[in-house]
Design a protein that fits this description.
It contains four helices and 16 strands. It is mainly β and 338 residues long. The strands form two sheets. Strands 1-2-3-4-5-6-7-8-9-12-13-14-15-16 form a 14-stranded antiparallel barrel. The chain has a two-stranded antiparallel ribbon with strand order 10-11. The longest helix is centred in the first third of the chain and has 15 residues. It is globular, with a radius of gyration of 21 Å. The two termini are 37 Å apart.
Length: 338
C-alpha cells in the first residue's frame, strides 16, 4: 500500500509539472514568503515541521498535531510600499491522523494615480489580491511518510479588472526521526482562472520545490537546504548590464554557467537553538543575490537574518531581508497558542 501511494503521488505530480517562471503567469503573490521564519531562512523553505502553523501554507505535508490550536499572524513591509500578510490556524480533530489547516494570504499594492491615454487624470485606484486555503495532511500508516494538500480560492482586483481562480498544492515529507532528518517536496499552484481579467486566460505560477533539513547531533543548529523552481531549467538569463567589450568594440553577453544555474535554484538557511525559547536564524538566497546584485558594488542581496522569541503562549518573530541597496524588507510575526 505504501509503494502504491508513493507511485500515485509522483504520477500525479508528473502530469502537472511544466515550465513557468515569474512574469509568465498570473497571481504571482501566491509564491511570496509565508512567514518571518521562512524569510529568515532564505525563503521558500518547506522542511519546517513543528509548531509553526505558517509552514502549512507552503507545504501542506508539514501540517501536524503540534500545530493544534495555534494561530499565526504575519506581516511584511515589502518593496515599493507594498504590504502583504498571512494568517494561519490549525485544529486537530484526532491527534493520530486528523489535523486541519486554514490560511489566508493577502497583498495590498496601495493607491495609484490613474490616467487615460491622453494623460488626463482619471482619479485614484487600488490593487489587492487574496488567497484563502484549506489544508489537510495524512501520515501513511506504519511509515514516516506524510502527504498533504491545500485547496486555495483566489481573488484579485486590479483597478477595474477582477479575476477569480482556484488552485491545489501537494506536499510530501519523509522523516528519519533517529537522526532528526527531513526530506520534503512540494508542488504548488496547480489550477486555473475561473474568471479572467479581460477575457484572456493566464497560467498560474506553478512551482516545484525540494528541501532537506537536519538538526546536528552535538550542536544546537538545524540546517535547511532548499532547491526552488525545479520546474524551470535553465533559470538564469544574461544581464545586458553585465556584457563586456574587447578592444575592437565587440560585445560579449554574460555567460551563465552550469554551476551558476544550479546555485540560482539553491537556498541555504540555519537556525541556532531551534528548540529553545530564543533562536537566531540566517539564510542566503543565491538567485535573489545574483539577480539583484549591482555590478562592482557589494550590497549583500540575498542575505536574510531574523530572531524568534517565545514568551509563555506567545511566539514573536522578526526578519530583515536584503534585496537591493535601495530597498529591503522587514517581516513581523506573532503566533498564539489558543
Amino acid at each position: 500500500m505504501f509503494k502504491e501511494n508513493l507511485t500515485l503521488f509522483f504520477l500525479l505530480a508528473s502530469f502537472c509539472v511544466f515550465s513557468q517562471i515569474g512574469g509568465e503567469s498570473t497571481y504571482q503573490f501566491l509564491n511570496l514568503i509565508s512567514s518571518p521564519r521562512q524569510a529568515a531562512l532564505g525563503g521558500k523553505v518547506i522542511t519546517i515541521m513543528d509548531h509553526d502553523v505558517s509552514s502549512g501554507l507552503y507545504n501542506p505535508a508539514t501540517i501536524n498535531g503540534d500545530m493544534d490550536k495555534q494561530l499565526a499572524i504575519n506581516y511584511a513591509s515589502h518593496l515599493g510600499g507594498i504590504g502583504y500578510g498571512t494568517a494561519a490556524y490549525a485544529y486537530t480533530w484526532d491527534r493520530h491522523v486528523n489535523t486541519f489547516h486554514a490560511g489566508v494570504t493577502y497583498v495590498n499594492y496601495g493607491v495609484f494615480d490613474g490616467y487615460d491615454i491622453d494623460g488626463n487624470a482619471t482619479g485614484e485606484f487600488r490593487g489587492a489580491e487574496t488567497a484563502i486555503s484549506l489544508g489537510y495532511a495524512y501520515r501513511i500508516p506504519r511509515s514516516d511518510l506524510y502527504l498533504g494538500a491545500n485547496l486555495k480560492m483566489i481573488s484579485s482586483k486590479l483597478e477595474q479588472y477582477n479575476s477569480l481562480g482556484a488552485a491545489l498544492d501537494f506536499g510530501m515529507v519523509y522523516m528519519i526521526p533517529k537522526i532528526d532528518f527531513i526530506a520534503a517536496l512540494s508542488i504548488r499552484n496547480m489550477g486555473t482562472q475561473i474568471t479572467t481579467y479581460n477575457d484572456l486566460n493566464e497560467k498560474l505560477p506553478l512551482e516545484v520545490t525540494f528541501g532537506l533539513s537536519q538538526t546536528l547531533e552535538n550542536i544546537p543548529l538545524r540546517w535547511h537546504l532548499t532547491f526552488e523552481n525545479l520546474q524551470q531549467w535553465p533559470l538564469g538569463f544574461s544581464n545586458p548590464a553585465r556584457s563586456t567589450s574587447d578592444l575592437d568594440g565587440n560585445s560579449s553577453e554574460e555567460k551563465v554557467g552550469v554551476l551558476n544555474e544550479v546555485l540560482r535554484h539553491t537556498i541555504i538557511g540555519a537556525e541556532l537553538f531551534p528548540n529553545k525559547g530564543f533562536n537566531i536564524r540566517i539564510g542566503y538566497n543565491f538567485r535573489r543575490s545574483e539577480e539583484l546584485r549591482i555590478v562592482d558594488q557589494r550590497n549583500f542581496s540575498g542575505l536574510s537574518f531574523g530572531i524568534g522569541l517565545k514568551l509563555n503562549k506567545l511566539r514573536f518573530s522578526y526578519t530583515h531581508a536584503k534585496y537591493t541597496s535601495a530597498s529591503n524588507s522587514s517581516f513581523f510575526g506573532l503566533q498564539i497558542e489558543l
